[in-house]
Amino acid sequence: MRKLHVATRKGLFVLDRRGGTRPGWRISKVHFLGDPVSIVLPDPRDDAVYAGLDLGHFGCKLRRLDPGARKWKEMGVPTYPEKPSAQEIGWDDPTPWSLMKLWALESGGPDADGRLWAGTIPGGLFRSDDRGKSWELVRGLWNRPEREQAFGGGADHPALHSVCIDPRNSETLRVAISCGGVWTSRDLGTTWALTARGMRAAYLPPEQAYAEASQDPHMMVQCAAAPDTLWVQHHNGIFRSSDGARTWTEIEDVQPSSFGFAVAVHPKDPDTAWFVPAVKDECRVPVKGHMCVTRTRDGGRTFEQLRNGLPQRQCYDLVYRHAIDVTPDGDTLAIASTTGGLWITEDGGDTWKAASVHLPPVYALRFGA
Amino acid sequence: MPSLHFTPQLERFLPAPPAEVQASTVRAALEEVFRDNPALRGYVLDDQGALRKHVAVFVDGRRLRDKRGLGDALQPDSEIYVMQALSGG
C-alpha cells in the first residue's frame, strides 16, 4: 500500500510513500481543492477511487476516478424515495428522507463484481451493483420498526457510519449506527437482526441503558483474519465481540481514557486494536494536552499508551471516526485530526511521524495501492 | 416567456445555461429545465423534491416563498434566479 487518500474539509489529498534518500509520505496530488470530501474509498478490486463530496449548497455527490484516468466521473448518489405518510410508515417519522451525508463507503467483496455499500446520514444503507452509477435504499433495514428508537448523536439525525462485509461471505453484513445500534444481515440486506446486546448507553435513563436500538457505537471494525471478532469505539467506552456481534463485552479501566471516535483492528490479529482517546464526551481533546494512541495486544486486557512522535505539549487534536486506517500487514497506520494534523507509523504504532500539520480538518482517510 | 438563470457557481460541476420556459409556477419551470438536464435536479432539489436548504431562489426580485412545493406563481415575463445562499459554505 503506497498511497494514502485523505478526505478533508477542503479537498482530497493523496500522499505517496517514497523511498530514496529522504523516504517518507508526501502529498503528491490534491483533488477537489476547496470542496468538503466526507468519505473516500480506494477499491481494492480494481483500484478505482471513490470520493463523496459534501457540497454545502448543492448536496452530496459521488465521484469515481478509474485507474489511468485523468478526470473524475460523476456517479449516481444514494437518493431516498418519496417519504410515505405517517400512517403508511406506521409511526410519525421525523427523519427527513433526504441524503444529508455520505458517511460510509465499502466495496462489496472480491466476489461481488461492481457491488458497493454506502452508509448515510439520516441512517439508511444503500447498495449499488454497477460501481456507483445507481443506488438503492436497503429497505429491509430502513423499514425496521426499531428505527423509531434511533436518534442523532452529534448529527441531527441517525448516522450509519460503519459497514463490515464478512470476508468469509460477502452476503453477510454488519453495520453500526449512531445512535441506532449494530445490525447484522446474512442475506445481502434483505433481513436484519439487531445485534448490540451488551452495549451500554450512559446517556439514557438507567432502565434503558442496554436498549440495543439506541446504542451509540462511534465506529465498528472487523478483523479480516478472524471475522468473528469486532471492536467498537462507543460513546461510553470500548466494546469487543468474539461471536460475530451477537454479544458485546465492555472493556473497562482503559487509561488514559476509553472515550474517542476512531478504532482500527489488526487485519491478522484479532487481539490487537488501536484507539485515539480524548478526555470525555464533554471535553474532546487529548488528556492533559498529551496526544496518544492506545494499543492492546491481548484482546483488551491491557493497553499501552503510544506517544513517540506525537505532540506532548498543548496538543488539542481530535481524530474523528473515519480518520484512521491500517494496512493489510498491520504495520502501517495513519491518523489525522480535525485540526489538520496527520501522523503515520510504520511499526505498528511504536513510533509516529507527522506527515503534515497544516491540512484542512480531516474527515476520513484510507490506504490504497 | 419566463426565464431561469442559474448561479455561475454551478458551472464548475455541470452546464447550467439560462433557459426560457413555458411555465406558470417555479416548480413547472424547474421541471422543464430538468427534463433536458436531469443531472441538474440533484444540485437544486433534495431527495423529496424540496429546494435545497442552502439554495436561494428569487422570483422577480423577491425571495421564493414556497420552498417545499415551489408553487410560487410566475408572470409571462418573470425572471427566476437560482443562487447559492450565503450560508452553506
How does this structure look, described?
The complex is a heterodimer of chains A (369) and B (89). The mean pLDDT of chain A is 97. Chain A has two helices and 28 strands. Chain A has helices at residues 86-89, 139-142, and strands spanning 3-8, 11-18, 24-31, 37-42, 49-55, 59-65, 73-74, 101-107, 116-121, 125-128, 136-137, 159-165, 173-178, 181-185, 193-194, 217-222, 230-234, 237-241, 249-251, 259-265, 273-278, 293-296, 304-306, 324-326, 333-336, 342-345, 353-356, 362-368. Chain A has 369 residues and is mainly β. In chain A, the strands form seven sheets. In chain A, strands 3-2-1-28 form a four-stranded antiparallel β-sheet, with no helix packed on it. In chain A, a hairpin with a 5-residue loop joins strand 2 (11-18) and strand 3 (24-31). Chain B is an alpha+beta fold. The termini of chain B are far apart. The interface between A and B is medium-sized, with 17 and 21 residues.
Can you lay out the helices and strands and say which pair or pack?
The complex is a heterodimer of chains A (369) and B (89).
Chain A: E1 3-8, E2 11-18, E3 24-31, E4 37-42, E5 49-55, E6 59-65, E7 73-74, H1 86-89, E8 101-107, E9 116-121, E10 125-128, E11 136-137, H2 139-142, E12 159-165, E13 173-178, E14 181-185, E15 193-194, E16 217-222, E17 230-234, E18 237-241, E19 249-251, E20 259-265, E21 273-278, E22 293-296, E23 304-306, E24 324-326, E25 333-336, E26 342-345, E27 353-356, E28 362-368
Antiparallel strand pairs in A: 1-2, 1-28, 2-3, 4-5, 5-6, 6-7, 8-9, 9-10, 10-11, 12-13, 13-14, 14-15, 16-17, 17-18, 18-19, 20-21, 21-22, 22-23, 24-25, 25-26, 26-27
Chain B: E1 3-6, E2 19-20, H1 26-36, H2 41-44, E3 55-59, E4 62-63, E5 79-84
Parallel strand pairs in B: 1-5
Antiparallel strand pairs in B: 1-2, 3-4, 3-5
